Amino acid sequence: MTVDGFFWLAALAALLVGLSKGGLPAVGMLSVPLLSLVMSPVKAAVLLLPLYVISDLAGIWLYRRDFSVANLRILIPAGVLGVVVGWLTASMVSDRAITLMIGCMGIGFCLNVWLRKTSNAVAQPIVVLKGWFWGTLTGFTSFISHAGGPPFQIYLLPQKLPKAQFSGTATLLFAVINAAKIWPYQNLRPYSTAMLWDAAQLVPVALAGAVLGAWLTRRISEVWFYRVVQISLFVVSFKLVADGLLG
């Protein structure tokens, strides 16, 4: 990979991936749309998967003591099931339809929170059926386009977990989901040596982003952390709706 405009755009996408693994929610979802400015979305998703997997390792270490075991017991098997469903239906499902659906759900969730002024509402308990539904949808949409953030956040935000626990739960869940995607991706969209080399050159940027993301997350107040989550979810969801409508 030569140091040109594409390299800097790819480096920015890698940094966003790392920041998301460090605990800044939703920003990683901007990486595929960003790279789609200079390559096909499918190729962008394939290029970024190794970065997601490697930055997951950094995220697991950073949040090794902060996660919700009760949620992960539901979300991990549900997320893997979603990956399997995405793999089996990859040739039958329209990327645009899924993108539009997820974007609409994310926007609807944010508007519901803001318009009903539920910021002071009581934290919601864990509901197993909801966890399985949103967890499966998280794995499915993550497989399609690395867009598992909105379903995950729609499920977990109402529980109002401490910010570190929220970020750690996300990190561990998506680490498992991304690992589960490796073989299906290779089966459906085989990696070339050149693509793996391009991804390898971006690894230091992604790892630096993970450390920076964790540093920022631990210094943001609980109130502003969840405001950032909701605003990021809304912005990304709006982008997904635009992608779904305009292609």
Characterization of this structure:
This protein is an all-alpha fold and about 250 residues long. It is built from ten helices and no strands. The chain starts with a helix and ends with a helix.
What's the pLDDT, averaged over the residues?
84
Number of strands: 0
The biggest beta sheet is recorded as:
none
Structure class: mainly alpha
Envelope shape = globular
Individual helix count = 10
* SSE run: HHHHHHHHHH
State the helical fraction. over 70%
| Estimated radius of gyration | 17 Å
Which consecutive residue ranges, at least 5 long each, have pLDDT under 50?
A: none
Beta content comes to under 5%
Distance between the termini: 28 Å
Write a brief structural summary:
This protein has 10 helices and no strands. The protein is mainly α.
